[in-house]
Each structure stands twice: as C-alpha cells, then as structure tokens.
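Re: the pair you flagged

First of the two:
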Amino acid sequence: MKDGLLIIDKPAGMTSHDVVARSRKILRTKKIGHTGTLDPFATGVLVLVVGKATRLARFLHADEKEYEAVLRFGFETDTGDLTGEPKETPDKRQLVKKLTDEDVRNVLPHFKGELEQIPPMYSAKKIKGERLYKLAREGKEVEREPVKITILKIVCTGEAGRGEATADFGLRVSCSAGTYIRTLAEDIGRKIGIGCHLASLRRIRAGRFSIDDASTLDELAACDPSDIDLLDKREAVAHLPGIEIGEEFESDIRNGKALDYEGRHAGFVAILSSASGLAAVGEAYPEEGKVRPKIVVI
C-alpha cells in the first residue's frame, strides 16, 4: 500500500466522507482520511491522506484556505446557502435592482483581518457532544460561542448574474481554517441591508495545495491503482524544520528512542531518513540535546 497525499477536486453533491469512500475503492485500501471538510454543494480542493500519512492529518487541518464564491443577494436561507429554504424577509427588490459591485466592494474592508464569527446551526461543529446540523434538522437552535477567524484577503470579482429578485456577485476569499463562508455571505448582506446567501462555493487552495494539483475521482477511477502517484508524505509537514538521520537510526525511530539533537529549534521537527524520506515527526528539546519521535510513519 502506498503512503502519501492525494489532492481531489471534489464534485458537487458528494460529502467529504463520500469522496473518501470512493477513493478507498479506487485505491483498494481502507486507510484513507480527509482534511478540511467541504459541504456537499461545494466543490474543489479536498486533501486526502493515504496509508501511514493518515497519522499526519493533524498538521493539515489548520492550513489557510482560499475560496471562490458567488453571493446571492435578495434573501437569506435557513442553511445560509442555496440548499436551504428562504427565510421570510422584507421585500428588497428595488434595492437588489440598484445593487452594484461597487456597493459590495465598499463593505468588504469591514470583513478583513481578525474577526469573531458565530458558527452556523447547519454545521458539523459539536456543542455538548451533539452535531449542530442534527439539532438544526430537529428544529432546535442553541447558543453558539463566537470563534476567532482571520480573513487575509477578500475581493469582489464582479457581477455574476441577476434573477427577477436576486443579484449575484463573485467573491474571492483567503482565510484561516474554520471560517464559514456561508456565515460571511450572510454578514455581508446584513452590512449592506439586503438578505444574502451562498449560491456556490469552490475551494481553490488548501495550504500549499492548489486546484491545479487536484485530480477528479473519474480521472483516478480510469487508472490502475498502481499507476496513481501520491504526493510524498513529507508534503504534509513541509512547514516543519527537518533534521536528517542515517538509515541505521530507523530502528531507534520505530522503537521511540530519543535521538541526539544539536539544533536550536524547540517543538515539532520532521525527521528525515536518508533511505526512507520522512520517518517521523519528532519533538525537539534543545536544552536536553534530544529529539523524541512522536508520530512514526515508516
């Protein structure tokens, strides 16, 4: 079985778990997980971890994300996106007709930088052990604590279409992990004074992985599993400083034995074997002159 990363261009209509399930059949292995859940209606970059690389998923969940979205002004929905039922709101057709991309651009500076965002009820976030979306489907609403997020870049890319009582505008957002673009769409609409929901969402980057690196499930299904190239598992921890060891130290790594360390960096490091590549993620203790293997991947 191969170990590494697989970048998928998730299609609309599938859950992230559906993508994992199909990938397991394609690669003929059960040891696959995903990082950074995408809603079923959303498309784009979904990073899968395969084989021993599943142990490295924790280092990918916090990666910065970049999205292309379409905001639909005219009304809010109970889910915050196009899959939900419209909420009862005052008729704003005249305002919608007059809405321009300049109006949208004018409010975007309010949404740049560090913000607090209340997670939507239709989300996988847990409150007291219960998934919020399960409570929402039962008609329940619970109090949610705001979470800190960071919007690094937010740009209106122009008008994207109009309906009888709606106006669509494109949005490009770079943000911290855990940001709900559905909630951002609603907040932008409220700032303008017109109900708004998310009409489409495409993730074009997760950390260092771009949509240009992604393959579709159909493309993978057309290949023999042995011909599918995975990204090296080192890519999952490329942001960590690396220390190199000889092949003779691999048995010590497997047995969790601390290695001598002469570096100054404290914290997680990638332990790189001359024979096997990424052997483990270790924790470095410069004051002790030691690095201890924490996550072994050989």
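Second of the two:
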Amino acid sequence: MDIRAELKDLMESKNYSIAYVSTATGIAKSTISMWMNGNYNGKNDKITDAINNFIQREHERSGNSDLPFVDISTVKYITEIGRLCHTQGKIGVCVGKAGLGKTVAVKRYTKEFMDSILIESDSGYTAKSLLKEIHRRLGLSGKGSVYDLMDEVVRKLNQSGRLLIIDEAENLPYRALEITRRIHDKTGVGILLVGRGILLENLKGYNNQYDQLYSRVKFTKIIDKILIQDVIKILESIGQNTKLAETYLQYSDGNTRRLEHLISHSISIAKFNGKAEVDDAVIKQTSKLLMA
C-alpha cells in the first residue's frame, strides 16, 4: 500500500487529525497536507521517513493495548463479598496490595448492579468531602453543612437496599470512616470498603480504640496474590500459550497489573527479536525491564 494511503487509513481508523499527526511527527500541518496531496516540493524522503516511523509506532502501540477483561479470582472475591453486603445490609472490607485488580472489580460490580454507588476516594478526602460526593452521586446538589448533607443523604438512602462502595478507602481519615458507619446505622444500606492492608488498621485504630467502628464489620476478605488459574484464563483470552502460565506467575509475583505489563511487553519483545512466540527466556528478559 502507498504510504500516503496507509497514513490516510490510519487517520480514519483512529480518528486522528492532521494537527495530531503534526504534533506526533514534528512536521508542520501545512507540509503534511501538501505531502498527502502530492503537492510538496521539499525533501519528500525526509517527510516519508518521519511518516513511516509514525505509522510503525502507532501499529506497535495498538498491539500493546490493554488486555481484555477476564473474570479472575479478585473479581470473584469482591463480587461475593459485595453481594453479601448488598443483600444483607452489612459492612464488608476487602483489602490487598496495589495492582491486584480491586478497582476493576468494583467498577465491574457497579456496572452489573446499578443500584450500587461507587466512590473513589483520594488522599485529600475529609468527612465533608466524602459526604458531598455521596450527596452528588444521589442526584443532589453536593452543597450544604455537614449536618444538612448527612440529613439529606440519610433520607435518600434510608431503607433503599442499595450498596455504597468506597474504593481506596485507606485514604479516608477516621471521621470520614465514622460518617460511613453512621450512614449504615441510620439507613441499613450495605457498605463495602476496599483498599490496601492499612485500611484494617485504620478501622481498628493502633490501640484498638475504634471498637465501635470495627465491630460493625461483618465480612472481611484479604487478597494476597492472583492464582495460576487466573493467569491461564488471561492467556487463553488472548490466544497465548498457557504452558507459560507458571513462568508468568513467577515473574509477575502474583500481581495482576505487573502480569498484564509482562504479557503485553513480552509479546512485543518477542516480535521485535523475530520470534514467532513468547518463551520462558523472553518473559525473564522482559521482567528485568519492569519496575519492581
């Protein structure tokens, strides 16, 4: 295919503008436009080389896209504890290291069960900012005093049978966690707190001084690592050799995010080195390029 036609096809398939190609290649928009129309009188070889490099890079980037969603054990655990909290109106806690797929799992849950509410907290959250976010997610204004926000949230959630999920809940200060408990006590809705292991310490207090809070927790799940069956499922979903599952698990240290990077990058490195498929050596080589 002529390189001009190849660029045009790429731009149409990716919905790229000439301005985007210009930024990516460092070539002026007017120059690209003239070159595509065959009207450029400058050094065509220089433009052709830059465009060819851009097309190749885009094709390689497409090959490194995110892996498809797979129903791994993390999803199963969070769905199970989520349904228990949801249907029984209890408080549950699910903790594990970063990169195990907890956020993907809770987003999947809220997509499947649309009467659940997902709050993604961050380190700047206070009790009031948490209340304001819940208030907004309930279709309200997100404005008012703590008392007014709490009163309207309780009225809206009371006996609703809904589930409130707070992801990265380890970021919440004690007062925000206490607000969550009070919402549960006053409305009977289920609560699922998801985060890293320190969340359990935050709920208990370093000297177990938060008994009133932690005593409300009915279900707890600690996720350590993904399973070999998870790796096999992921490899099957993209048509890769499942015999490499043990090696992938070893060099990913059972971390979902690291595994996804390891798989996608090892496929690229195998292709770059002219190999028909990934092998143990490629996985080991690729693992050295990833951050620990």
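The mean pLDDT is 92.

-B.
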